[in-house]
Amino acid sequence: MTDTIEKIDKVLTDLKKAGGVEACAAVSRDGLLIRSSLQKEHFAESFAAMSATMLGAAETASIELGKGVPNRVIVESSEGRLIAVGAGHKALLVVIVNQETGLGLILHELEKAALNLKELLE
Amino acid sequence: MIETGIPKLDEFLGGGIPKGKSLVYYIQPGVEGEIFGLQTIYNSLKKGGMGVFVVSSTIPDIIKGQFREFGWDINQFKDKFFFVDAYNSLIGAPSNEKYVVMNPDSIEAFSKIIMNALKELPPSTIVFGSLSTIIDLCGEKETINAVRAWNKTAKLYDHVLVYNFTAWPYSEETLKAIKDDMFNAVISVGGIAERVIFGQYFGIFKADWTKEIKKSMLFRVLRPGGIRLYIPKILVTGPFDSGKSTFVHALSTRAISVDRLGTTIALDHGHIDYKGFSADIFGTPGQERFDPIIKLLSGESMGVFLIVDSTNPTDFIRAKQMLEITKSYGLPYVIIANKQDLSGALAPEEIRNQFNLPPDIPIVPVVAKDKKGIFEAFEVLIDKITGGL
Hints:
The structure holds two protein chains of two kinds. Chain A has three helices and five strands. By secondary structure, chain A is an alpha+beta fold. In chain A, strands 2-1-5-4-3 form a five-stranded antiparallel beta sheet, sandwiched between helices. In chain A, helix 1 runs antiparallel to helix 3. Chain A is globular, with a radius of gyration of 14 Å. Chain B is of the alpha/beta class. Helices cover 31% and strands 29% of the residues of chain B. Chain B is built from twelve helices and 16 strands. Chain B has a 16-stranded mixed beta sheet that branches. At the A-B interface, helix 1 and helix 2 of A face strand 7, strand 11, strand 12 and helix 9 of B.
C-alpha cells in the first residue's frame, strides 16, 4: 500500500517538474482525493471534488451528444489553466498551470502521467 | 482504568485500559503509528494520572517537540511526567532526565532502570516510544523475555504498560509472540489501499478484559489535534429544494457550493471536524436533469443523509428514487426531516408512515437554516457507520 502511494507521489512530482505546473492531483472518478501536490489538504479535497464533477459532466455531455469520450477538459482564465484528463476508469489527473506555459508540452506530460497513474491503479 | 483518548478506541475497549494491563500498538511499517502511544500518555496525564515515556529512538527533546506539534502542553504535568532516556547515552550526550539508561544496547541495563521505575513510582501509565528499537539494539529473544518480566511486575504495581511496536520483518516467532501472548491487548494499526481509498486504520486484534470487537476504523492524524476518525465520504441527497446545501453548510466547518439561481447544479462539498471525527461531505443536486452527476458523485460513500422537506409529502417518492440512484440501499442512512419550523411540517413518525420506512431507519427532525438538529443527525449517522457502539 505504501508502495503504491509512493509511486503515485512520484508520478505527481515528475509532473510537477514540467515547467509552469503550479499544482497537480490524482483524484478518484467519484471525487475523492487520492494524492496531491497541494500543501493544504483541505483545499485539495474541494479541488478534487470539483475537478471530478467537471470531467464527469463533460464526459456525460459529450457522450450524450454522440461525440464520444472527450480527451480532456481545459478551463482557461486570465490567470492560467486548469486541465483534467481521465486516467483509466478509476481516476483522473488534474493540473493547474500558469498562463505562460505552452499547452503542447503540458498536454504531452499529462498524457504520459495519466497513463502511468492508470497502470498503478489497475 | 486509564483512557487512551483515541476516539472510539476506549469505547471498543470497554472504557479504556484497566490498571495492571499491557497493550501494544502493532504498527505496520510506513504508517503514522507512533502518535498512538503519545496520545495515550497525554490523555492519561490530562486525566490526572502519572506518566512515563521511554525514549529509545530519538532524544527526549524531539518527543517534547512532537507533543507541541499536536498542540499538547506537557509542561503543565511537571511533577507527574518523566522520561526514561535510553538514547542520549547511545550518542554520548549527557541527559537531564529522571531516569537514564547508560547502556541501552544491554537488556540487563535497560531492565534494571525499568524495574526501578516500576517499583518506586505510584501506579502510572508507562509508554514505550519504540519497542522495535529496543529489539534492534538488544536482540529479539532477550527483549521479549525482558518485556514479559516488565509486564508481570507492572501487574503487581498496578501500572499500565503501553508499547509502540513497528512490525519490521523480525522472525516469525517474535511477531507471533507479540501478537498472541505477550500482551493483554493488541491494537493493529495499518494501511489500506482499497479501490481508490488510501488510508490508515486501527482495530482491536485482541483485548483479554472485554469481548472482542472486530471493527476497524479509518483515521488520519491532524497537527494540531492528534488522531481523528476519518470518513472519506458522506453523501447528502434528497429532492429539489429540500435544503441539502443549507444542511451541508450548516454542518461543515468549511464548505463550498457550485450553484446558480439558488439551486445546486454540480455539488456542495464540505468538511466537518466534530467530536474526534473528520469527514468530507458531498451534497448532490436534487433536480432530475442532474441525475448523471448524482450517479457520478455517489460512489464510495460510507453513509447517506437523505434530506426531505417535511411540509411536502409529494416529494417523498422522488426521495426514495434518489436513494436508488445513489445506490444507497445497504449503506447506513438517516432521514433528515427538514423545515420542522414551518407550519404543516409532518412529525418524524408521520413521515415514517407515509414513506413506509422500516422502524430501524432513524428520522431526525431538523431546521437546517437555524442549525437545529444537525449535529444530532451527524451523531446518529456516525453511530450507524461505526456500528452503533
